[in-house]
Structures are given as C-alpha cells and as structure tokens.
Amino acid sequence: MTKHLITHLRHVDIAMPDLDRQVDFYRNLWGLTDVARDSGVHFLAAEGSPEQYIMRLRRDDLKRLDLVAFGAATPADVDELTSRLVKDGVTLVHEPRALDTPGGGYGVRFFDCDGRVVEVSADVGVRVHRRIEERESIPVRLSHFVVNSPTPEATVAWYVRHLGFRLTDSLALPHMGELMWFLRCNEWHHSFAVSRGPHVSFHHASFEMRGIDEYMRGTGRMLRNGVEKVWGPGRHKAGDNTFSYFLDPVGNTVEYTTELELVDEDTWHPTVFDATSEDVADQWGTANPMNEIVASRQFNDPDKGVFIAPPI
After folding, report:
1. Are residues 155 and 291 in the same domain?
2. What angle do helix axes 152-163 and 75-87 make, rounded to 10 degrees?
3. β-pairing, 33-37 with 41-45?
4. Which run of H or of E encompasses 149?
5. Chain centroid, CA 263 distance in Å
6. How many Å apart are CA 160 and CA 244, to the nearest integer?
7. Residue 53 sits in which domain range?
8. Are residues 71 and 149 in the same domain?
9. What is the C-alpha to C-alpha distance for residues 222 and 247, in angstroms, rounded to an integer?
10. Pairing mode, if any, of strands 141-149 and 92-98?
11. Residues 160 and 272 in one domain
12. CA 37 to chain centre
C-alpha cells in the first residue's frame, strides 16, 4: 500500500500590486491576524489554527499565485516525496532545505503540471492559537483551495500520482462531462480541488468558521460592508458544507464555509454529482442561481506567475 506523504493544507500565498488594500481587507474585514511582515510581505494567521500563517500577501507588479503549501509529517517524508518527484521528472524550484518563513521548518518547492509552485514542509513550529468563541465570526482555519485548469483531467491525475491525493467526489454537466474534482489528503472531504476553466488561475480559497451562526454573521458583515458577493449563502451537496463566496479587492474569490464533511477512507466511494441539479448546487435553495456570470467570476484572471518561482 502506497504511503501518503501529504497530511494537510498549510497556506496559500498570493501577490498583487495593491498590497495595502489586500491587507486591509483580510485583516479588518475577513478576520485574519497579521502576525509578521517584512519588506512588502504580510503573513496572516487564523486565530483558531495552529499553522503559523494560512495566507501570505506580497506586493508585486503582477497579480499571481505565489504558491500553495501542504504539510508532511516528518522531514524524512519530505525527502521521500522529493526523491519520487525527481525520479518522475518533476521540476524542483529548490531542494529540501531549512525554511526562513515564520515557524521555520524543512521543505521543498516544485512546479506542478500547470506551472503553479507547490511547497511541502515538515517540522514547522506550531503557533499559539485559541478557541474561537460563540458568535465570533472570524476564520478558524484554512479549509480548502481550488484552482482552475484548462486541462483539469491531467491536473487531477498529476496530484493523485505525485502527491497522493485521493478523489472524493466530482461535479459534472450533462453536455460537457466532469467540471470539478474534489481531492483529499486526510479525512476532510477535500483540501484541494480542480475546476475546469479557460486558463490556469486561482478559483477560490475557503475559510472554515466556528459554526452556522458565525458563518452567517461573517457573511452579513461582508454584505454590510459592500463586498461583492459572488454566490451564496447556501449549502453544497458535495462536501455538505455551507458557502458564501465573495471577491477580494483584486478579484480573487474567497469563501466562508463550515461543517465540511468528514469521510471514512476505508468505505468511501466517489460520486459524480449532476451540477445542474438545484439540490446539488445548494441544498437550502437560499443562494442566487449558479449561472455563467457566477462561474465567470471564479475563472479569475490568467495567472501571471505560471512556471515562474516567486522571489521569496
């Protein structure tokens, strides 16, 4: 039986020209904590998460995804993964080494098949975190990250083969086949997902809230502050999680969610859900309809950083 070397999602790192507006949004509206900064880079944590940070914001002339980071259990697992990647011809950004980001650790970076930078690390210091209180509408943790790919079948196959992700479920349209694949690396229904899109880009990042009340309070805060809502509030069928999608100041889609389904590795069998079913899109029937306008918001701009490693 193949050993699974990826344990969880750590953080998502993005860059943009207007750093100040991004930091203001994520810190003062979205509910993250600015824990470290250095020369145009901010590290933002979730108060309920032991991760040193769950999002890194960096000033750059281009809007881009810098990297997506996953955890491994031990440095030996990082080395074993690296050996597998090199054997399979995957291009490394850097060999396994000590990391100089908050919490340190030991990690490797490489390009996926679409040109995104992926980091896998172990031995990162645990952040002192706390219990999120009742009615406190700030993120507990980073829930999952979704990307767009014009060749999603190949992208899914790459993450399954090289990083050991498992397919949980997928969404399909009768006239075009499967359009979104939910991938897991632990008991959560999905930590990563791939969506069919016109170009390589950031689809959405999702943040787990304490419960339904906190999720709705956070959703209301975004609406009261005039943040553009993309879709929601509602409850998906695949994953059984709640959703409220909004656009951040540079046009990336971010989601408040809660109650993402947990799966049993030994008994789970993937389901292909019909995305045209109203119940699949939104079990509650409270969200605005999923249509071409909603989908196009999540296509985002083409990623300007494909096959270009970030400077830090």
Report:
1. yes
2. 130
3. antiparallel
4. strand 141-149
5. 19
6. 28
7. 8-122
8. no
9. 10
10. unpaired
11. yes
12. 22
Residue 132 lies in a domain: no
Q: Are residues 145 and 292 in the same domain?
A: yes
| 238 and 268 fall within a common domain | yes
Residue whose tokens read 């690396």: 185
Domain boundary among 122, 150, 176: 122
Residue that the structure tokens 């999720």 belong to: 215
Q: Is residue 242 part of a domain?
A: yes
Total domains in the fold of the chain: 2
Tokens of 267: 């008994």
- pLDDT (tens place) for every residue of the chain, 312 residues total: 467 999 999 999 999 999 999 999 999 999 999 998 888 999 999 999 999 999 999 999 999 999 999 999 999 999 999 999 999 999 999 999 999 999 999 999 999 999 999 999 999 999 999 999 999 999 999 999 999 999 999 999 999 999 999 999 999 998 889 999 999 999 999 999 999 999 999 999 999 999 999 999 999 999 999 999 999 999 999 999 999 999 999 999 999 999 999 999 999 999 999 999 999 999 999 999 988 889 999 999 999 999 999 999
CATH number at residue 61: 3.10.180.10
Greatest CA separation for the chain: 52
Q: Whose structure tokens read 């999540």?
A: 298
CA dist., res. 33 & res. 54, Å (int): 10
